[in-house]
Design a protein that fits this description.
Elements (H helix, E strand, L loop, with lengths): L2 E5 L1 H11 L9 H10 L4 E5 L9 H10 L4 E5 L3 H10 L3 E4 L15 H17 L3 E6 L3 H9 L4 E5 L1 H6 L3 H20 L3 E5 L7 H4 L5 E6 L1 H10 L1 H12 L7
Parallel strand pairs: 1-2, 1-8, 2-3, 3-4, 4-5, 5-6, 6-7, 7-8
Helix pairs in contact: 2-3, 5-6, 6-8, 10-11
The structure holds pyridoxine-5'-phosphate.
Length: 248
């Protein structure tokens, strides 16, 4: 069964647009956790960025207390974040690149050049019982390097696919890259998640990629929630990704 992880960062983005620097505000990420889980989300994802632009420290601890499915903690590979992860004990950590100037995570992690540092972090987190995933582009060299770090999961960056979606030829090329990457990862014994830029229009297309375990989707669900509510927005996405056989 393909799982849906709901990324709630942008619930906090909206709150910070009005309540930055205050110890209260709306909308509340913890309420979002409850509503997304009640609607059937299989997991919750939150990214604590170095600049704390959306999720704050107080949020991540409250989210940890509230999540009853699985918490996937997105973080940069820094000593500060490793320390937080070891105390927070999320079910999974997804290591992402972080660049102060970006609006959202842009490219994938360059595991080829940072393999040693990432392997050290993966070993520490794995030892603490936290599943480690690396957010990478669908690139054969990045997948090989990811396997060498001892991370049991990768998350394939679907941003290029999402951007190419309206151009049939480019979309086919990106789907082919994702398919090859997923096949390579599975052959090398690593599990495959995917995410970034997936929405109500392009998510069904991604189901053609084999071996997917989980999709992590944030912006489109939070955007839809503004008009229909978070529960209905999550249920609609779950309906799109339901790959179970009819009556099965
Ligand atoms: N996966 C990772 C690793 C991300 O960094 C993000 C963006 O925070 C997402 C998935 C979700 O992307 P989007 O908000 O575009 O659905």
């Amino acid at each position: 069964m393909l799982r849906l992880g709901v990324n709630i960062d942008h619930i906090a983005t909206l709150r910070q647009a009005r309540y930055r620097g205050l110890d209260h505000g709306e909308p509340c990420p913890v309420d979002a956790v409850r509503q997304a889980e009640a609607a059937g989300a299989h997991g919750i994802t939150a990214h604590l960025r170095e600049d704390r632009r959306h999720i704050l420290d107080r949020d991540i601890w409250a989210i940890r207390e509230t999540v009853s499915t699985r918490l996937n903690f997105e973080m940069a590979n820094t000593p500060e974040m490793i320390d937080i992860a070891l105390r927070l004990k999320p079910d999974a950590v997804c290591i992402v690149p972080e660049n102060r100037a970006e609006v959202t995570t842009e490219g994938g992690l360059n595991v080829v050049v940072q393999a040693g540092a990432i392997a050290d972090t993966a070993t520490e987190l794995n030892k603490a019982g936290i599943e480690v995933s690396l957010f990478i582009d669908p690139d054969p060299a990045q997948i090989e390097a990811s396997v060498r770090t001892g991370s049991p999961f990768i998350e394939l960056h679907t941003g290029a696919y999402s951007e190419a979606y309206d151009d049939e030829a480019k979309r086919a090329t990106e789907l082919q890259r994702l398919t090859k990457a997923a096949e390579q990862a599975k052959t090398l014994g690593i599990e495959v998640n995917a995410g970034h830029g997936l929405n109500y229009k392009n998510t069904r297309g991604i189901l053609a990629v084999p071996h997917l375990n989980e999709l992590n989707i944030g912006h489109s669900i939070v955007s839809r929630a503004v008009t229909v509510g978070l529960g209905p927005a999550v249920r609609e996405m779950l309906g799109l990704i339901d790959d179970s056989p009819p009556n099965g």
